[in-house]
Amino acid sequence: MSAFAVSAAIIAPGFAAQAQAGSAQPPMAKNNYADKAAWLCWTGKPGDACAIDLTTTVVKADGSESVEKFAANPKAPVDCFYVYPTVSNDPGVVSDMNAGPEELSVVKAQLARFGAKCRIYAPLYRQFTLTALRAGQSGKPMPGSADPATRAVGYGDVLDAWNYYLANENKGRGVVLIGHSQGSGVLTQLIAKEIDGKPVQAKVISAILMGTRLPVDKGKDTGLFKSMPLCKAASQTGCVIAYASFRDTVPPPPTSLFGKAPAEGQIAACVNPAALGGGKGALHAYLGNSPAISGQAMPKTVWVAGKPNPTTPFISAPGLLSAECVEKNGFSYLEVHVNAVPADPRTDTIEGDVVTGGQVNAAWGLHLIDANLAMGNLVDIVGAESKAYLAKK
User: Fold this and answer.
1) Of 361, 211, 213, nearest in space to 293 by CA
2) Which of 93, 100, 238, 361 could bridge across to 132 with cysteines, CB 3.0–4.6 Å?
3) Nearest Cα to Cα of residue 212 among 171, 176, 260, 277
4) C-alpha distances in angstroms, 268 versus 153, 205, 289?
5) CA distance 221 to 239
6) How much is the pLDDT for 26?
7) Which DSSP string do the residues of 263-325 spell out, in sequence order?
């Protein structure tokens, strides 16, 4: 698998199969999350990686364009706590605590826009790296890559960051948990072990777990989480939004890890951010117009025939994409449809597939743009949930 393909492709359920070698390593020292340098994003801190340009060109079906500016709200009444996916190209099994271009890119794509509705806290953490993943896939796993203690470092870091945030920064505010891929896997552990059914759950407005396969019992809205059900309305709080996205033209093959729960009697949770109550809905996507979270440029879409492409960091195309949660062939996932209209000048395609050896790797679906596809919907949901939470409080 290429670097582009694997950049966000690792998810917690797949960790155990990635490497089989290595001896136990000495315990790693804890991070000091009182030091703001240990945080990738922290609203208002100097060097906040989420204080960036999110200007968007809105491309309509008739080919007309307008520019949408973005403004964060540093006085937002609630918080967001985010854990990023597998992006690190550091040379070891676990990453260091220095933000590289890949970490900066991913918060631009997946997180910074939530700053319109919440104060943002995103810790750096020593995640399982792409380097170790590639080595395992090549049949030459890195020493220590199978050591359970080494694999637990990232979760331990996030747990420490969460506890520091609760003790020192939360101050009774509501908080939205947000993650993707490995980040969703880490947050799933955190919720199951530290939040679900415990007093701190009262602070959690919702959890947004993208690019994962959260198990729920068939016919129910709970499963692994016993007291945090799936979200059904934007006025609901204490609930979970989880999904993995695939094109309707490229459904998950039998080999896909996404969309299938690990146990009988369960399915992978799918909550459609475009229609929380079920059915189809219009996706309010913010598609990247710069290197993707892999750090490599996406193929260039010609957005409007006969016109130069916009140069803003993001593109929004109202009416182009819609989605629905479906259960097909043993999989449960967010099925994304491109509303192509060949007669109009706007593009009838989007980029975002994982590509291996020049071929679309169907097993990963639209994993690389899970967040981009529904970003506008999710930001609106966080705003609505926050109002409901504050009203109840």
Assistant:
1) 211
2) 93
3) 260
4) 26, 22, 31
5) 9
6) 64
7) STTEEE----TT-TTSS-EE----EESS--TTSSPPP----BTTSPPP-SSEEE-TTSEEEEE
- Tell me the Cα Rg of the chain: 20
Q: Which residue has the tokens 């440029």?
A: 297
Q: Which token pair is 107?
A: 């918060």
Write the CA distances from 271 to 221, 232, 332, 334, 371, integer angstroms: 10, 8, 10, 8, 13
Supply the pLDDT for residue 291: 53
Compute the distance between CA of residue 259 and CA of residue 277 in angstroms, rounded to an integer: 19
At 365 the pLDDT is 96
Which residues of the chain carry a pLDDT beneath 50?
1-23, 293-297
* pLDDT for the residue 237: 98
pLDDT at 243: 98
Angle ∠(255,260,266) on CA atoms, nearest 5: 150
Q: What is the pTM of this model?
A: 0.93
**Residue-wise over 96-110: b if at least 16 C-beta within 10 A, else e?**
ebebeebbbbbbbbb
Please say whether the dihedral angle defined by the alpha carbons of residues 243, 246, 247 and 252, taken in this order, is positive or negative.
Answer: negative
Residue 284: which of 44, 36, 58 has the closest Cα? 58
Q: Which CA distances in Å does 280 have to 258, 274, 287, 298, 373?
A: 20, 7, 20, 27, 14
